[in-house]
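quick one before i forget lol
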Amino acid sequence: MSKNNESSYLVFPWNGQIPAGETVTLRDLDVIGVGAKRRKQIEALQGAKQIILQTHEAFIPDGVRSIYDDELFRSLQWLRPLRIDKISEFNLLDEQKKIFQRVFPKTAQTLGLAAAKVRDSYLAEMEWSSWLLQDHWRYFVGYLRQRFPQQKELVDLAYWEWVQAWLEVQPFDLHTNLEKGILTVNPSLQIVPLLENNSILGKMKGMYAFVYSEKQEQVLEKPLTAAQALLLDLLQEDRKFSTEQLVEMASISEELQPNLNKTQWAEVVTDMLNSEILFQN
């Protein structure tokens, strides 16, 4: 077989480099039910490659098998694979170890020699209860917090890396049911608080907003100001405000600090719209 006819195996999280060969092999354990950045990456890849999908149905936990079947059916509608290969042999433990390194690279580096022990201890305690390999690590930050309660920098680092990885795969419904002129919080918004300066991340203490940007097809991160946080608080519980109404509410709320005038509050809203923290139809 010539090199151009060989199929390349795609590893996630993916760095975006287009592999050689006419086809590319994806695993259901990485792509079924995904949205956001990962789906956009695959859809872009379909313009240049044909897809071979590997399925691991024999290894899917019974508790989520029916959900997996539904998601597999829906995902096949947009994946449109050249063929489907059913895999009968698979080392789940080895693959989970590889995913740990890719999702938490800086955390693993910071743990140093203890990384393998911590990783293996987590894997021994946590039963696999999803079909996406990455989802198995959704409790790791809490686990790390219990193991190392005094190492706040380390725990914050792991949370930072997890939020980015989680946002890359979630099937967010970003622009449906938007009402004309009404402000809507980006449903992908995740807020990561740093209670102290983090030398590992190189970040100052404060709140940081993470969102998936459909325009840029990337996960965006930016510091969240006190004024922005206060406006988000006013928009809780699905409260419906236009820009003018939100500015009015902020300007008349005596308990809100900082105390800005209407023009300044309007500028804060504009910045949040430009950052895709807020949407407006």
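fyi The longest strand covers residues 206-213.
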